[in-house]
Design a protein that fits this description.
The chain is α+β, with helices and mostly antiparallel strands. It has 4 helices and 16 strands.
């Protein structure tokens, strides 16, 4: 395995109004299971959803990391990662999304006592999830190899996105100076930054605005080789990305993510 040197420790803050979970909906969940196991070393815990569908939770070192679900048959939904923000009142938050100009892709629903979920679109069309925890409280380990490290919005309305997410979740934005592109980081109540916002590059053309999930690797060059050997596609990189180095990836079913090696991993 190329992406980690040690097993992660539990360090997730699980703070309301921050990202707490990333879940992949895949057109071939069995193949996705194998791909991400090979790339990140994840083990999968299965939970039946009816007679024919199975939800999987990714674990590393006994800690919850991310989720995997099959795409609903006949939905036409492509393979994609959805990133979920923790909320304490999902109905109130969905109402606020609509008031602020966003829309509802999937209304709130109970997930067998694990929590309540909804999927929303911001005013510029980028999808994100809401999760009101029940027994499932999100990822246990973050900001380490094999875990979620960052969440990033690429949008053609940076000013509108800053306003929307600030009013919805109370996020505070800091602009990163000295970059060739306009880039902002989000934090909450003075805690370390947990997400980024950038102007969508022109080369993305008519591609919809989107939130991307970053996952940590110990050696991004080795990870790039492992990703391609496992059937994934490196669409950009390895290249410098802020305080580290990353590759932009499509998994074998087309799900986009970034594999990211930090120059220095956080101590906590």
């Amino acid at each position: 395995m190329t992406t980690k040197t040690t097993l992660p420790h539990a360090n997730a803050r699980k703070t309301p109004n921050e990202f707490l979970w990333a879940d992949l909906s895949s057109t071939d969940d069995a193949a996705a299971d194998k791909f991400y196991s090979r790339v990140f070393g994840w083990a999968w815990q299965e939970m039946p959803l009816g007679e024919t569908m199975v939800h999987r939770d990714a674990q590393l070192g006994g800690h919850l990391i991310a989720g995997l679900d099959p795409v609903m048959p006949g939905s036409g939904q492509p393979t994609a990662w959805t990133n979920f923000v923790a909320v304490t009142d999902i109905d109130k938050t969905v109402a606020a999304v609509k008031h602020l100009g966003g829309s509802v892709a999937m209304p709130p629903m109970d997930v067998m006592g694990a929590g309540h979920m909804a999927v929303l679109m911001d005013p510029a069309g980028a999808a994100f999830g809401l999760w009101q925890p029940g027994t499932h409280t999100g990822a246990d380990a973050v900001n380490q190899p094999g875990t979620s490290t960052w969440f990033e919005l690429a949008t053609d309305d940076v000013a509108g996105a800053r306003k929307f997410y600030s009013e919805l979740f109370g996020w505070e934005w800091d602009r990163i100076e000295g970059s060739d592109m306009e880039y902002w980081t989000a934090k909450l109540n003075g805690a370390p930054a947990f997400a980024g916002l950038m102007a969508k590059p022109a080369e993305m053309g008519e591609m919809p605005n989107f939130w991307a999930a970053y996952f940590g690797v110990a050696d991004v060059d080795a990870a790039a080789g492992e990703i391609q050997a496992a059937g994934g596609t490196v669409v950009a990189g390895p290249m410098r990305m802020g305080p580290g180095k990353g590759v932009c990836v499509l998994d074998p079913q087309g799900g986009y993510f970034v594999a990211y090696q930090m120059d220095e991993w956080p101590v906590a």
